[in-house]
Specification:
single chain, alpha+beta, Alpha-Beta Plaits, four-stranded antiparallel sheet, 3 helices, 4 strands, 31% helix
Length: 106
Amino acid sequence: MKAYAIAYLRNVRMGADIVEYLERIDETLAPYDGHFLVHGAKPEQIEGEWEGAPIVIEFPDCDHLRDWYESPDYLEILPLRTENSDGVVIFVEGVDRKHKATDVLV
């Protein structure tokens, strides 16, 4: 089942560190077959309050996602982001195309 790293970043302080992070993150994703689904797009706010940037990275499964996040290459650049932005990151497993909303009731 596909797995996703979802970030909600706020107060990104653009500077040399964030630029370096952006220049290096793709090379950390490649060995784990991770790729951006959402990155850099301005969200259209429909309900509630939202201030920040949504980011969604897809991986083949949870093992690939965790291996990427815990990899030496990613851990090396992680502080470039965490020390220059506020945010929340979650990992979540996807559902297949046959999933129905009521499936969570079982």
